[in-house]
Amino acid sequence: EEEAALVRLCQRVCTGKEPEAASFYREQGNREFCRRGYQMALRLYSKAASHEPPSSPEVSVCFANRSAALFHLEHFEVCLEDIARAESHGYPDRLLPKVLLRKAECLLCLGRLQDAADALSVVESKIHMDGLMTSPTHQTLLKKLSHLKVKLHEKERCPEPAQEARGDMQGKSEIWEENDSISGASSSLSLNFDTERGRHLVASQDIMPGQSLLKEEAFVSVLCPGESLPLQDSETAWDTRVTNADLYCHRCLRQLLASVPCRGCSYAKYCSQDCADMAWEQYHRTECSLGALLLTLGVFCHVALRTVLLAGFAEVNRLVEWSHSGDKDPHNPKAGCKCLSETPEPGAGTRGIPGCDDSGQYHSSYQAVFHLLPHTEQHSPEHKFLCMLSVVAICKQLQEAGLHAAVLNQESSEQWPKTKTSEQTSDELSPELKTVAEAMLRHVLQLQCNAQAITVMQELGPGDGAVVNKKPVRLATAFFPVLSLLNHSCCPNTSVSFSGTAATVRASQPIPRGQEIFHCYGPHQCRMGAAERQQLLRQYFFECRCRACLDELESDVKSVVSMRNSFCCPSCQAPMQGEEDLLCCSNEACATSVSRENLSRRLQDLQQQIKKALDLLRDRKADQAIKMLLKCQMDAGNFLSPEHLLMGEMEDHLAQVYATLGKWQEAARHLKKSIGIVEMHHGPSSVETGHELFKLAQILFNGFAVSEALSTIHRAEEILSVHCGPQSAQIQELQEMKTCLSELPRSILQRT
Ligand SMILES: [Zn+2]
Ligand SMILES: [Zn+2]
Ligand SMILES: [Zn+2]
Ligand SMILES: [Zn+2]
Ligand SMILES: [Zn+2]
Q1: Looking at the 3D structure of the chain, how many domains does it have?
Q2: Is residue 361 in some structural domain?
Q3: Which ligand is nearest to the CA of 559?
Q4: How much distance in Å is there from the Cα of 542 to the middle of ligand 5?
Q5: Do residues 418 and 490 share a domain?
Q6: Is residue 246 part of a domain?
Q7: Most Cβ neighbours (<10 Å): which of 34, 561, 587, 621?
Q8: How many angstroms separate the alpha carbon of residue 666 from the centre of ligand 3?
Q9: How far is ligand 1, taken at its centre, from the CA of residue 37, in Å?
Q10: For the segment 153-195, what is each residue's pLDDT rounded down to a tens digit?
Q11: Does 545 share its domain with 513?
Q12: Are 338 and 369 found together in one domain?
């Protein structure tokens, strides 16, 4: 019964290649291309390519079409890659001259004159070989050819000066000395263990804000398909919307421009053939045919499977057996080290700490992942049962699909005795798959407490404005065994940032020697009150005793968050009071009372209206969006406290709209108000404030408010380099702005 239900659920998700979908997407892409919607055309051609058979003339047409979109978007290098792909997959000969001319044009734009000349002579001989020159297409091709030749000669006569390499970019190098016994950790940290806190990291010397503490590559990561971003409305069978699955490489999480589709499914897409091949080798040859099942069961099951595949069967088997040996023999001296509630013998150093190897080293390895706490006893029986069903469903499908050998990391299926597989009834898992299932179940349970989200700053809206509005989004779910050593605090002393699948943890404040290093698992004191945080932290099976929680729970003071995000009196705007369903005005002379439900409903309506205003902005109806937002502000002033986060968000949106209109002063005025509220909620040196200052810097830069722009850039730089490091994209952008401003002619500088 469960199986039938699962099969039905999986039918809603399709990861196979469908020829009709390919032609549908290609036609949509052509339509967008004609409308000069090159960005959309690019995405649609990628979707088309993912549905075409691999290495076919059909897929080569997709690549050739996509190269045209890339050319218009001036991504010349990537355009050349797509042309090479088209050529190697059997692009129809009669269409080739057009594509080769594009190649020459790309090379010309890139200043590779000799290559461009070579490419041109290839096209020329091709066109002449084809004989008849009377057809209109031939005529246009010839015209284009002679035009390109003229351009080439011009460029050869006056070559552009070579761009000066920018030296000051590498100016700031980071202090980094790796720890001897913990891979990816700074030498300023040490690994400790006690029964109360479990494993944790402590500063072994004084640490400066901004100093890198951990640099770790994920042991395993799986892209979350995520919500789809609106691309265009259509009522067709195939979705033209874009999701994270279309935007990022499924292996390295790099942003995709021209994706390479998986040879087997329409779901997996990669940044390059190299990534596609490596993913296939390491895990995707097993996962490919399970696509729909894995998407249906969710990302935790997928991470669990990929963890096992990356580890290899031998290692999985070794650790699963080792975990059994402890159960059978409680007197086994080695068993103690996997029982995490037992303190290792004093004086043993890190050797007795779970997850460490015999020499006391802690590495980002499968052994370390295996030792992350599964909290097997604390999960509810229902939850465990569901996890078990999911894991068994995956293993059964592996067995049925004949992927046994692939799971066991055997090169060919011949090594696996065929007689054995055919003897098995389909209801019984083979002993090897039972081991795999056991390990996977452990990983699914571990993920509840140890899953780390990889987030990126994603651009919102059409992305064609001068000011980039970015929001952090969850991109993937991963295991970081070293990062997992950090305990949670609602007021952490570190900040995490990601680049691809690598995480960097930096100190966000001075950390004196001996103090524990904390990381926030999600419930941060700026975002919610202590009660709500404790509720959320229950999934991690602990009660938070961090400084913020102790302060809030032990004193009777209401949390700062609930004070700031509170309602005010609709009649006199004084703060409203009361914990129950009825709220009363704090101004005794007023005596107004309103039900909490009433105010909550107004808040919801307001949020709906704001969403509509943002839709208007997306449809480029800026004037209407402004009107609507101003109305929302008026309305909000009647029942929300002036410090409410939503008040700040509205100011931020208004700034965004004015920026799209080029009204920089107006935009800056609104953004400054938003910054005031963000600072109040998150603190003046928080990463949130840093992002807002970054936006302000862009606006001031565009409005030529030079001196103010420079001081804002300076502040944003100071904050963001602490949280994201001096190499981050935002810091680089800030430095480019600074260089630009310093190169402005005096006349402009004096005007401001
Ligand atoms: Zn990649
Ligand atoms: Zn695939
Ligand atoms: Zn806390
Ligand atoms: Zn009142
Ligand atoms: Zn915060």
Answers
A1: 5
A2: yes
A3: 3
A4: 21
A5: no
A6: no
A7: 561
A8: 39
A9: 26
A10: 877 776 555 544 444 444 455 668 889 889 999 999 999 988 8
A11: no
A12: yes
